[in-house]
Design a protein that fits this description.
The protein is an alpha+beta fold and about 375 residues long. The chain is built from 13 helices and 16 strands.
């Protein structure tokens, strides 16, 4: 028996609501994929009927469309414009409040109780992104207490990919289309003319305990092989590839390459790529007070290295042009992230390609740098 089959069962489509109901019974709010504004978004769901049954997405550089399928698959889409980051590191967080009375000034931690969330449909690349944010926000000296509170309360249901999109390149980054760890439950949807079932793997004690309460049957070797075949098929569909060989040195040694001028001529510096990225973590803080000067609060907001004021220090803006900002983003994501956190900052989800208004493709930009760089510039020895 394959080691992963030990905690693996099969759940019928008719019994999938029992999985959601069990999570709700345990006090979890369900956050999952649903159709809104002609896109797959992550929002609170209450039942299976809220999932995007029979929908899939078509993506390319600067393009995203939903289209109907000829079946009732629940998880046939790839990824949409939102990421799970918004629930673990929200776009706005109140850090503290201060109140001035007649006698003294008091400060209060503004932290609210972290909600118990069950994230339904976390893709393997997105699971890898959560692991990256864990290293950044929990594994360093700059421990993010708000992130830690939220992260402890999360139950993760991963969906193994049976389909890849045209902007996906998780196979290049080693982040998909199958996840082997980091989840509480992992689901592979199997759908054909004869069946609609889910092969479900437990990845934690909490996941195994929840499975024990569901109407399942043990997975057979045939079930397991069908699940593996589904993800193998997805790996052949990835529409993009990124050659990561020596990529750190390639980017470090080409800071003055003319390709940066080329991409700067197309980039709008709109920050879409950083807003849809599941690993970007840049923020700013703002202090604001009431008109009477009696209360004040500090709030942290998402920010982006593409915003002109992000690199401002006393004396001026360090990266004043789009060329410098795009170079900073790409070099940090694919090169200096390794030095800081021990991995790439990219998981190959392809969102930055799809949601760039002018269709800039980071895999194409790296390929262009590699094609025109000298051997020395590529970091070869």
């Amino acid at each position: 028996m394959h080691k992963h089959m030990e905690n693996t069962v099969v759940l019928g489509r008719q019994d999938f609501p029992a999985l959601l109901a069990a999570l709700q019974a345990d006090g979890h709010r369900l956050i999952g994929p649903t159709v809104r504004d002609q896109a797959i978004v992550y929002d609170e769901i209450h039942a299976v009927g809220d999932l995007p049954a029979g929908w899939e997405d078509a993506q390319d550089a600067g393009r995203y469309r939903l289209r109907r399928r000829g079946d009732a698959a629940l998880f046939a889409y790839t990824v949409g414009p939102q990421t799970w980051k918004r629930y673990l590191q929200p776009p706005a967080v109140r850090l503290w409040t201060a109140c001035l009375t007649e006698r003294d000034l008091t400060f209060e931690d503004a932290a609210e109780p972290a909600p118990r969330l069950a994230l339904i449909g976390v893709r393997p690349c997105e699971l890898a992104a959560i692991a990256i944010q864990d290293r950044v926000l929990l594994g360093s000296d700059c421990h993010d207490t708000d992130y830690a509170r939220r992260r402890r309360q999360v139950f993760i249901v991963t969906v193994q990919c049976a389909r890849a999109g045209n902007t996906c390149f998780c196979t290049s980054m080693g982040t998909g289309p199958r996840a082997d760890a980091g989840f509480d439950l992992a689901v592979t949807e199997l759908l054909d003319a004869d069946r609609h079932e889910f092969v479900v793997e437990a990845g934690s004690a909490a996941g195994a305990a929840l499975l024990a309460r569901l109407p399942t049957r043990p997975a057979t070797p045939t079930d397991w092989q069908a699940a593996l075949a589904a993800t193998r098929h997805a790996s052949t569909q990835a529409g993009r590839q990124l050659d990561t060989t020596g990529i750190r040195d390639l980017l470090y040694h080409n800071a003055e390459h003319p390709r940066w001028d080329d991409v700067a001529g197309r980039c709008l510096a709109c920050a879409n790529c950083t807003q849809v990225c599941p690993t970007c973590f840049c923020t700013r803080v703002e202090d604001r007070a009431d008109i009477a000067g009696r209360t004040s609060e500090r709030v942290r907001y998402w920010d982006s290295c593409f915003n002109s004021g992000f690199s401002y220090i006393h004396g001026g803006i360090i990266r004043s042009g789009t060329r410098a900002r795009y170079r900073q983003w790409l070099t940090h994501k694919l090169a200096s992230w390794h030095d800081q956190f021990g991995s790439s900052g990219c998981v190959g989800c392809g969102r930055c390609i799809t949601w760039c208004p002018v269709g800039i493709d980071l895999t194409a930009e790296v390929a262009a740098l590699r094609a025109t760089a000298t051997r020395q510039e590529q970091g070869a020895t």
